[in-house]
Structure formats: C-alpha cells, structure tokens
C-alpha cells in the first residue's frame, strides 16, 4: 500500500469576459476498495453553487453554472489516497466494453495492427489469457507510437494516432483499447494521475476472471500503487475532466497541473 498526496489544478483564461458559463467537472477521484480517498478539498474561482451526480460509468461529476461575467475560471482539488491495487474486488461482466466506441473505431491502420497481433498471438502458446494478450498488445503499441506532446489533440481518434505514429498517453491507451476489443477482449479507458507525471495520465483496464486489471501502454507496464483513477469509460470522450459552454466569442487558454507525491505512513 502507498499513501499518496494528490493535487490537481486547471486554469482557464478568456481574452474577454464570458457569461452564462455552465460546466461539468470529473476531477474528484472515486473512493474504491483499492484506493481510499480522504482529506479531500476542492475550491473554484469564481465560486458558485454546484451539485454532484454519478454518470453511467460511475464517475463522480460536479455540475455548476456561473451567470456573472468573468475573465478566468480555475479549480483546485487536493486529497490523500491510500492505494493498494491488490484490494480490487470482483466487478460484474459488462459487454459494453467489448465494442468499439467513437474514438476507438477501426480504420485501415488499426485493422492491420489488430490482424498482425491476432496472428502473433495465434502462434504463441504463452499468450492465451485475456491479460497476457493485453500485455502483448501494450508492448506492440508502445513500440509503434512515438511519444510526442502536441502531435495530437483530445479529438484525435485511435486510428489517426496510429496512422501518424505519434501521440501522448491518451492515444496509446485508445489504440491499445481498440486492438484489445478487436481481439474480443473487454477493455476500458481510464483517466487519472500517477507519481511520475506533472499532468494527468491515461491507461487501460482489461477484464479477466471477474476483475479489471490496469495496464499502461505508454510505459509498457502494469499499473501499481502509484496510480490513482479519476474516471473511466469507453474512451476519452467518457472521461473528459472539464467541459463547459459559455456566452461570448473569445480566445481561450488552459493550463493543467497535477502532482502526486508519496508520503510516509505517519505524514499528513
């Protein structure tokens, strides 16, 4: 088990004041058997009333409305997480995660890679379980995509990222999810944070023997107790940490900062 201090902050700047700003935030990590969240603190500027709900993927969603004019919007979350991935409990079978979604639909590049992986798995006696197959997929995706910040956007599909051969963690995760689903596996996209990053991160989960198992294709490894889940779904579109609409034709800037640091058992 690890004790982690989490901080997550997003700042939006507008070139002119905006009004009637409605937003949804998925920035609060859920309390799960494998990650216990405590000392949670949240604030935003401008402050406004919010209400909380849980979406169809069991993600925590915070919804709010700022009617007054404002030239910036920011929010900050901090918490302590006790993480022990070995404590994950069985989950019900959900065939939804077997099917491709908007950002994982296959085109020529993904179909070719899926065929290549299927053939390789078919000739190996050591790659037979869903988790072993997914680990092999992660290794292949890790080799085929170069990590290049700015090469893709949040709207880039798995097909586009693979065809271009460049991307970031979102792209690695969506390509791996797409290939795993093409193999008939249940694969889930996950957004969160982990100790080696200064921003948010994305990975995948594979369903085997009644449980979800986390794999990180960006780093070609299984997730460990340094990873904290914030949201999950079929692809990035189900896990957007901040989305909003407002009145005003303006230019917008955004900065995101995430920090995860390990604490000793007796640290606060």
Could you please describe the fold and organization of this structure?
With 268 residues, this protein is an alpha+beta fold. The chain folds into 2 domains: 2-86 and 241-263, Sandwich (Immunoglobulin-like), CATH 2.60.40; 89-238, C8orf32 fold (Roll), CATH 3.10.620. The chain is 19% helix and 43% strand. The strands form 3 sheets. Strands 1, 2, 3, 4, 5, 13 and 14 form a 7-stranded antiparallel β-sheet that branches. The chain has a 5-stranded antiparallel β-sheet with strand order 11-10-9-8-12, with helices on one face. Helix 3 (158-164) links the parallel strand 6 (146-147) and strand 7 (166-167). It is globular. The two termini are 16 Å apart. The model has no long low-confidence stretch (mean pLDDT 94).
Short account of what is shown:
By secondary structure, the protein is an alpha+beta fold. It contains four helices and 14 strands.
Which residues sit in consecutive blocks of at least 5 with pLDDT less than 50?
none
Tell me the helix content: 10-25%
Query: Which structural class matches the secondary elements?
Result: alpha+beta
* Oligomerization: single chain
Q: Give the N-to-C terminal Cα separation.
A: 16 Å
The rough form would be described as globular
The fraction of residues in strands falls at 35-45%
Count every helix, treating DSSP H or I runs of 4 or more residues as helices.
4
CATH architectural grouping of the largest domain: Roll
Q: What is the count of β-strands?
A: 14
Supply the CATH class of the largest domain.
Answer: Alpha Beta
What is the N-to-C order of secondary-structure elements (H for helix, E for strand)?
EEEEEHHEHEHEEEEEEE
CATH topology of the largest domain: C8orf32 fold
* Sheet with most strands: 7 strands, antiparallel
| Rg (C-alpha, Å) | 19 Å
Mean pLDDT rating? 94
Q: How many independent structural domains? A: 2
């Amino acid at each position: 088990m690890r004790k982690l201090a989490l901080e997550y902050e997003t700042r939006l700047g507008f070139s002119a004041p905006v009004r009637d700003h409605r937003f949804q935030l998925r920035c609060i990590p859920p309390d799960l058997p494998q990650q216990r969240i405590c000392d949670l603190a949240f604030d935003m500027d401008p402050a406004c009333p919010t209400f909380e709900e849980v979406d169809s993927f069991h993600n925590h969603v915070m919804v709010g409305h700022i009617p007054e004019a404002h030239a910036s919007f920011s929010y900050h979350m901090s918490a302590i997480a006790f993480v022990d991935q070995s404590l994950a409990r069985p989950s019900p079978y959900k065939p939804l995660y077997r099917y491709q979604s908007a950002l994982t639909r296959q085109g020529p590049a993904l179909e070719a890679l899926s065929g290549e992986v299927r053939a390789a798995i078919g000739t190996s006696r050591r790659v037979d379980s869903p988790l072993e197959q997914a680990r092999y997929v992660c290794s292949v995706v890790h080799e085929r995509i170069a990590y290049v910040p700015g090469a893709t956007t949040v709207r880039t599909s798995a097909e586009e990222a693979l065809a271009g051969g460049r991307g970031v963690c979102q792209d690695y995760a969506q390509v791996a999810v797409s290939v795993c689903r093409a193999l008939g596996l249940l694969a889930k996209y996950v957004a969160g944070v982990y100790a080696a990053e200064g921003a948010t991160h994305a990975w995948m989960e594979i369903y085997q023997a009644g449980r979800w198992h986390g794999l990180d294709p960006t780093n070609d490894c299984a997730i460990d107790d340094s990873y904290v889940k914030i949201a999950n779904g079929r692809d990035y579109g189900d896990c957007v940490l901040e989305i909003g609409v407002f009145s005003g034709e303006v230019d917008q800037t955004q900065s995101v900062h995430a920090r995860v640091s390990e604490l000793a058992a007796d640290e606060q």
